[in-house]
Design a protein that fits this description.
alpha/beta, Glutaredoxin, six-stranded mixed sheet, 6 strands, about 15% strand, globular
Length: about 230
């Protein structure tokens, strides 16, 4: 497995982190087993063409300021240029920065909204709003999406997806995530070569790595999948 890192690219330009190569090699060993199965999980939330040639795997926290920055500044361009055109898909996984509280509650609210087919709608609202730090505010977000309040509340109060949320968190740590956001870019059908992009990097950094990897894969298949 070949693993590169855009953090290496950045540090090379700014003469930071001389020991990055060791970290990347260690991460490569940890990622090997995941790459063999394409980093996929049965309960993954996938946005875009499921047969897109590239996959951007994101570990994130709805209460993370840098994650909000990525969503506001970089994500719209990535969506327009690569997701909406079928060149890349997004796989979103939870990486709560705390064991309880808003980091977990927001992830739970999004998954409970997903039971009613509104996962991505809730995802977008949470990253766009500051009204998400209490259960009452999260129920207001559900009301704004016109979700069945009884079903949403039942799911939320039962903490139905807490185990799955922390499963994401543990696996993210095994893949090198130490904070959020954390991205792994790879060829969907050949994940042996993966690019790690830690942090809310600017669009130009994503573009450079995406375009480079696109040159090694076939053109995306036409799909009518909703985004």
């Amino acid at each position: 497995m070949k693993l590169s890192s855009s953090s290496a690219y950045i540090s090379g330009r700014s003469n930071i982190a001389a020991g990055l190569a060791v970290a990347v090699l260690s991460l490569g060993l940890a990622m090997g087993a995941y790459a063999a199965q394409g980093f996929t999980e049965e309960d993954d939330r996938v946005r875009g063409n499921p047969r897109a040639p590239l996959t951007l795997l994101e570990y994130s926290d709805f209460t993370c300021g840098f994650c909000e920055k990525f969503f506001a500044e970089t994500w719209p361009i990535l969506f327009s240029e690569y997701i909406d055109t079928g060149k890349m898909r997004l796989v979103y996984r939870d990486f709560p920065r705390a064991l309880s509280g808003p980091s977990v509650d927001t992830a739970l609210a999004a998954r409970c909204a997903g039971e009613q087919g509104q996962y991505w709608a809730m995802h977008d609202r949470l990253f766009s709003s500051s009204d998400k730090y209490s259960p009452a505010e999260l129920r207001q977000q559900a009301d704004a999406l016109q979700l069945d309040a009884k079903k949403f509340t039942s799911c939320f109060e039962a903490s139905r997806y807490t185990t799955q949320i922390f499963k994401d968190r543990i696996e993210g740590g095994q893949l090198g995530a130490r904070g959020t956001p954390y991205f792994i870019l790879y060829a969907t059908e050949n994940p042996q070569e993966a690019v790690v992009l830690p942090g809310a990097m600017p669009y130009e950094m994503f573009k450079e790595e995406i375009d480079k990897l696109l040159q090694t894969v076939s053109s995306p298949k036409v799909s009518s999948e909703s985004l």
